[in-house]
Amino acid sequence: MTDILSPVKLGEIALSNRIVMAPMTRDRAGPGDVPTDLMADYYRQRAGAGLIVTEGTQPSPAGKGYWRTPGIHSDEQVRGWRKVTDAVHAEGGKIVMQIMHVGRAAVQANKDADAETVAPSAIQCPDKIPGPDGVPADTVMPRALETDEIASVIAEYVTAARNAIAAGMDGVELHCASGYLPMQFLSSNTNQRTDRYGGSVANRIRFVVETLQAMSDAIGPGRVGFRICPGVRFNGMDDANPHETYAALLTAVDGMGLAYCHLIHIPLTGQDALDLVRENWSGSLIENGGLTLDTAKAVLAEGKADAVSFGYLFISNPDLVERFRASAPIAKANRANFYVGDGNDHVGYTDYPCWARDPS
Ligand SMILES: Cc1cc2nc3c(=O)[nH]c(=O)nc-3n(C[C@H](O)[C@H](O)[C@H](O)COP(=O)(O)O)c2cc1C
Fold first, then answer.
1. Ligand 1 pocket test: which of 20, 21, 25 has the largest number of ligand atoms within 8 Å of its C-beta?
2. Cβ of 56 below 6 Å from ligand 1
3. Percent of the chain clearing pLDDT 90 (strictly above)
4. How far is C-alpha 102 from the chain's CA centre?
């Protein structure tokens, strides 16, 4: 039976335990979308995780859609992230960067005034997104990418992956879930293209396959993971046949030697999403979505995943792994501070206590 506290290797990345911190946008980057010292503290506090996946990080100004998300396209951002990776590594942890290009899921006031909003097709995201004041605002009508522009978007991801490694990251995770750019290519309702990047399933998966291949060529496949959520409706996603789409995608990337597939597991009509991944993907798998210690242990015991990730629980339990180890109480997160905390960035961010130091 697999012990949740036992080491595991995901591609080239060696984890001291199987508990992963899921990527979480926290909207606390500084001017220029540069990671701050406070962000380094936040990640340092959570370095007991076998692996941290950072918050979604934009590869370019056009890839930004939310307020105060960090970037990985300027030297200053690379230097900011270096403080984060040094802090995590000093505690013996591992950290990969989630690279997130939002595509059409963008509010103009959240990004540079001259930054464009692009997508596979000119179809506006119907869901509103919080603006700088936290009030949900209309998204931007995107411009459809020209066929000969797509290589330059993939090149942004490649530069981002190289920059992440230069900043000391142990790898990168391509965000292909939650209705952002890669998923806009995957989903039939947001990809109405008639070129080789749209139409058939083989064409709709092409952007993700080429991006993963290009990032792998740049930094080695064993340092590249990807995140999917078959069937998710967030940000206006409505794929006509998620089973077909994801079976094709997973089969296409299975032989690349990638580090892992990170599944956000939600209910799917028909075949269960975890079974769908297991059937079409032979590499390492991180399972995510509403897990508790007991359900996580069960998934590992059944051999259905190699590691498990937790989001909410890591917000309010920086020492989650120690708490699991000691069967200590689990603290509840305050949703009010998920994003910007009362104008005080540390509130609900770095001020959750460690149980071992302050049992209560
Ligand atoms: C505040 C917050 C921010 C999130 N931001 C991201 C993100 O940037 N990228 C991503 O892939 N998922 C993001 N998620 C989703 C989580 O990674 C995770 O999939 C979700 O919370 C379900 O896992 P859980 O039940 O263990 O929390 C976010 C979740 C929360 C609560």
1. 25
2. yes
3. 96
4. 11
